[in-house]
Amino acid sequence: MCTRTQRLQPLCPIDGQFGPRGQEEIALRALQFKRGLLHEFRKGNATKEQIRLHNLVQQLPKAIIIGVRKGGTRALLEMLNLHPAVVKASQEIHFFDNDENYAKGIEWYRKKMPFSYPHQITIEKSPAYFITEEVPERIYKMNSSIKLLIIVREPTTRAISDYTQVLEGKERKNKTYYKFEKLAIDPNTCEVNTKYKAVRTSIYTKHLERWLKYFPIEQFHIVDGDRLITEPLPELQLVEKFLNLPPRISQYNLYFNATRGFYCLRFNIVFNKCLAGSKGRIHPEVDTSVITKLRKFFHPFNQKFYQITGRTFNWP
Ligand code: A3P
């Protein structure tokens, strides 16, 4: 059973920063739990005076979850946001992958960031960054020492998850769509269709190699998205370490919700939440011969990925 002491505690370095103990300190400590005032700031309900008074700033991200789409990017961001020193950008900003946004300049990007205390770090996630050609150079120009998080899942499962998302979108618009098998396998050659985006995205090593032209491998941390589903805490602890954050996320903050079939988030006694229903869709059944073919196809790329990253997965 969880005890009250297991609840998120404010960071030690923060403790000394607010001068003599008093009412103000209590209010600021409450902000550390990311409810109350900070929540209002995020919703845009704060006055300029309140922002100034609390010394809140909009900071460029110190870390970015660059992908991979359907790897568990939302779960990772929301779970990291449990940490009192982390403040998430709620929306995918698509600054570096969208030319129109990028042309608006870095101040536009900074203004999209949530309010935070100067000692906190901001994290954003836009999974399209991982696969978009121009992004590594653009991020490098902003901050060459930024920390980059990549969350991956077994490539065939990820591709099917990707397909499922698109399929659901089509169904919502009452449109018909091809079966996964038809898209993933080239009918002329009967080989894996590498033109299909869901397949291409799962060739992790190809994309990573482009990033490595700008950033050393030490600036990346690979998160096991399959393990984040079944056993999130150890994965989050590895990220805390990578981000040089003191360990603050505990088992108390993560509880398994049998109805959802996933771990959900507990911020404190009163506030908990599960991810939206669009996360954790039921995948359509896929022909086993197609799955076997895809797994065989991804195998050599996976080996290369393990070699480059130093993180091995037991993907088939
Ligand atoms: P599925 O819908 O295929 O199950 P992303 O946020 O990058 O789009 O990734 C979505 C995936 O996050 C989901 O894929 C789901 O499996 C995974 N996920 C990981 N942890 C989760 C959690 N706690 N709640 C819901 N989905 C989670």
- Helical fraction: 40-55%
Low-confidence stretches: 1-33
Strand ordering within the main sheet:
3-5-2-6-7
Principal-axes geometry comes out as: globular
Instruction: Profile the largest sheet.
Output: 5 strands, parallel
Compressed to H and E, one letter per element, the order equals HHHHEEHEHHEEHEHHHHEHHEEEH
> Which radius of gyration do the C-alpha atoms yield?
21 Å
Beta-strand proportion:
5-15%
DSSP E strands, number: 10
Distance between the termini: 37 Å
Structural class: alpha/beta
Small molecules bound in the structure, each named once: adenosine-3'-5'-diphosphate
| Alpha plus pi helix count | 15
Pfam families: Sulfotransfer_1
Protein name: Sulfotransferase
Active site: 70
EC number: 2.8.2.-
